[in-house]
Amino acid sequence: MKRRRMLGLLAASALPLPAAAQKTASADPRRLLVSIRDIGHRTDPAGLSAVLDLLTAAMIPVNLVPAAGEEGMDPQANGEIFTLVSNYTRRFPGLIGLAARCGRPGDLPPYDIARQGFMARQALHRLMPEAPPFCTVLACSGPIAEGDTAVLAGAGFRTLLVLPAVAAPVRVTGSPQDVLVVTGGEPLGFPDAGTVFARRHLGQYRHLVFSAPEAGTATPAAIVAGLSAFSHQLREETTSARRVSLLASEVALRNHAGFRRRLALHLFEPDPRLEEDAAALEVFARMLTRAEIPYSKGPDLPLSDTAERPTGLCWMELTNPGLRHPSPSHLSRLDQNGAGEASGWRLQAGAGAGIPVGLASARADSFGLNAQAMQMLPVLLSVRTESESAEALATDFPLSCEGVITVSPAAIRSDYARAALLRMITKLRVLPGNHLTTLPALAADLLPRDPFLPAVLRARGLRLSAGTEAGRPDPSRYGDAHDLMEDARAAWSYFSGLTNRTTGLCPATVQTGGGAGSVQDRLTMWEAGSHINALMAAADLGLIAAEEFSARCKRLLKTLSRAANGPLRLPPETISSSTGKGSSRFNAFDTGRLLLALDRLRRYRLAPPDVAALVASWDFSSILRQRHLHSWRDGAFVDEYRSNYSDYVAVGFRRWAYDVASPFDSLRLQDNADQQIALLRLVEQFGPLGIEPTFLHLLEIGPERCALTLADCLSALLRDAAADYGHPVAPSESPVNQVPWFTYQGFRLRTDPEPWMVTAGFADTTVYDSGFLARLRATSSKAAYLLHAVRPDTDSAKLTAQVRQKARRAGGFDSAIFVADGQSTEGYTDLNTNAVILTAICRMFADQS
Predict the structure, then answer these.
(1) Are 41 and 76 in contact (CB under 8 A)?
(2) In the chain, how many domains are there?
(3) For the chain, how big is the Rg over CA atoms in Å?
(4) Do the Cβ atoms of 405 and 381 come closer than 8 Å?
(5) Same-domain check for residues 237 and 285
């Protein structure tokens, strides 16, 4: 009814129809953009249809922008309105332009901005699957830094339309080689359109932004009056060459700075058995080389219609993925072994860091970086037969779109087909703005320069390579059983020689040899948990009999049961190994490890009867606040939620039915690159990541999504570090035999020329020179065995051999080996090191059996 009413008013009005084409200006006319935003389920279809009829009748280009968020992106709720929009875009090409819609990309890092572009295109496709392909305009809210816009080109966008909340001057910024950004404009009601030119405006651009829901709330008469007056005035402006109206997609083409689009020419490699095709490809490649036309060659890939689940991928190896400009080295095939997710692909052994690249059809649901960080590039032209080679001469490429031209060997078998195709490519090269390149170069150019993406790419290269499946160690790589058993005896000697016969405890650290005695008599609950693990490992390895195991456990547990001190009924932060007296403080992290060990103990074949009663005697409900663990220090609770240890220790409390939150909880819902990069960003906030607690998690708890992701990243960083130092290394938390006596060592996960960080123990408030701490970089003895138990390979075998040679002593293993001089901590050993080595060796023997 409303649409008929408006059309009646339109017919009764004196609305003139302008000339079929706007007059070309000899000078540089001012430019006008018209947009209708927030199209969604609150938009009246009849009202919007009437408005579009008015604008198209007056030959006024208009950009249509969906509503943001769920309101605009739900196909079911918006089916009718976007069927209408889709019909108008097909009926009026060049007058009705579409924009995809995202939120506020300016608040996000580069990887997330690229993903916003991908998801915006995907959402637009879901709303209008039959709409014309190659939408190049993305609308958003809020500003975005100029340097961050280039990543949107990977999703096929060339113009970013920043919708104004209030009236502001229009600015067009950015490089036409990537993405132009249009900011500013005038929010306007349809009835007020006739007043636009009465307001003085000096800028080169003007952007009028109408709200789609108003098409159903304003009166038809007011809308017709406003748009009629606006059309009259615009016609006068255009016929006098003072102004030209255009779509947002045309801004890049009309901008003073010029325009460039990249077209990648890619030749599919033939089946090696087809000699004719191989010869044809070589002839055509020589023709391209003589014509100085760049091209690439690679595996024949099927075109994908669903960008999240590509039907074919190739692996583009990058020689320097962490640098500002990653350099592609070569393409190789990725073999599918599943449903197309990251775990469903396999890569040949030895592949380096890189990114999977797929080819998307023109009708694909999206382009760019999908949730698995696979780069999906649009194919603008696919030449697969000789007849298509001839037809390619007449091909009209989508204006302003970047993408790939693929050529199959079957399309260039004859001299005629090769010549025809070469003429077409030469014609494309000389067209203004076109820049021919290779598929790897295009994919590398479009890769977001995000500081955390290289870690994910390196880790995935290792994971997809044959023989590096996360969480599945190959027992045959553990080495000689006799050597491992001697290692276990050396580690057990720490406990057999230092356990107090009354308390059942060992000191935390000891200087062995030369008559030196205990260095640190007090131990933490972390170390108490390690001691329990060591007892179970010793019994399983046959180092102690069942009776001795039971006696040792009984003394240790009895001491723990009496150690609670202070106002809370909780395990103490530290306890004296000689007297059994505990401190008045409580440490949630250390207790989490103790609870994990006690959980293993109660399930153990030689489990003592009173483990559950001991845990029940402690009041852990008092240290849980909003599911966060809290420690008790100096008369106050301290929130321990934000730490790289929080996820590991949370499992310990959960095993005893305490509902404890972990900062990683929301990051294990999906196994994709989005979640992995979010995890790395979070971990980076907490500090450097060492072998512990990640590999402890895998050893003691088992495979888990976040732990596996971090282990993959650590494995890749360890490989890089081994190349830098000339030998394998294994940083982790470790005592050292000099000030500051205890260090946390690990890697930064973001791109950094010096990723290995060393910090002093959390209780040490001394400010140390960074160079001094760097000289304390060391391979942790226990970390070497942890690596070898969980991810055995050539490097871990070298590490354990080095530790065995330099750090194994009669009274236990030295804690660490310094990287700078290759010297160990010279008889300075500790409970944790020997307990973890025992537990790791026990795991190796269990895997072998």
Answers:
(1) no
(2) 3
(3) 34
(4) yes
(5) no
Do residues 400 and 315 both lie within one domain? yes
CA–CA gap between residue 738 and residue 828 (Å, rounded): 10
Residue 72 pLDDT > 70: no
In terms of Cα–Cα distance, which of 561, 122, 138 is closest to 371?
122
Beta strands in 408-481 (DSSP E): 434-437
DSSP 50: H
Whole domain around residue 803: which residue ranges? 475-848
Q: For 398-443, how does the pLDDT look when each residue is reduced to its tens digit (9 = 90+)? A: 656 789 999 999 999 999 999 989 998 998 888 878 899 999 999 9
CA–CA gap between residue 125 and residue 131 (Å, rounded): 8
**What tokens does 73 get?**
């992106």
Q: Which residues, at least 6 apart from 156, have a Cβ–Cβ distance to it below 8 Å?
A: 117, 121, 134, 135, 136, 367, 368, 378, 401, 402, 403
Domain-terminating residue out of 403, 434, 450: 450
Give me the pLDDT at residue 253, please: 63
Tokens of 648: 């590991």
Q: Looking at the structure, tell me whether residues 174 and 268 fall in a common domain.
A: no
Task: Tell me which of 327 and 724 has the higher pLDDT.
Answer: 724
Q: Count of residues for the chain?
A: 849
Which is it for strands 518-520 and 328-333: parallel, antiparallel or unpaired? unpaired
Query: Distance between the two ends of the chain, CA-based, in angstroms?
Result: 80
Pairing of strands 354-360, 375-383: parallel
Amino acid identity of residue 404, one-letter, is V
Upstream peptide bond of 693 is cis (omega within 30 degrees of 0): yes
pLDDT band at 346; cut points 50, 70, 90: low
- pLDDT over threshold 90, residue 148: no
Is residue 184 within 8 A of residue 168, CB to CB? The reply is yes
Report whether 95 contacts 248 (CB < 8 A).
Answer: no
pLDDT at 765: 65
| Structure tokens, 699 | 């050893």
- Are 600 and 616 in contact, with CB atoms under 8 Å apart? no
Amino acid identity, position 42: R
Which of 45-54, 169-178, 677-686 is predicted least confidently?
169-178
pLDDT of 14 over the 70 cut: no
Lowest mean per-residue pLDDT among 311-315, 336-340, 638-642, 690-694? 336-340
Q: Are residues 423 and 529 in the same domain?
A: no
Q: Work out whether strand 574-576 and strand 624-625 pair parallel, antiparallel, or are unpaired.
A: unpaired
Query: Of 197, 231, 254, which one is at a domain's C-terminal end?
Result: 254
Average pLDDT over residues 331-359: 65
Nearest 5°: the CA angle 399, 403, 405 is: 105
| Beta strand residue intervals within 218-365, DSSP E | 243-245, 261-268, 296-298, 314-318, 328-333, 335-336, 345-346, 354-360
Is the pLDDT at 466 greater than 60, yes or no? no
Statement to judge: residues 195 and 244 lie in one domain: yes
Strand-pairing partners, residue 328, are 318
Question: Do 765 and 632 share a structural domain?
Answer: yes
CATH value at residue 840? 1.50.10.140
Q: At what angle are helices 705-725 and 794-806 packed, to 10 degrees?
A: 70
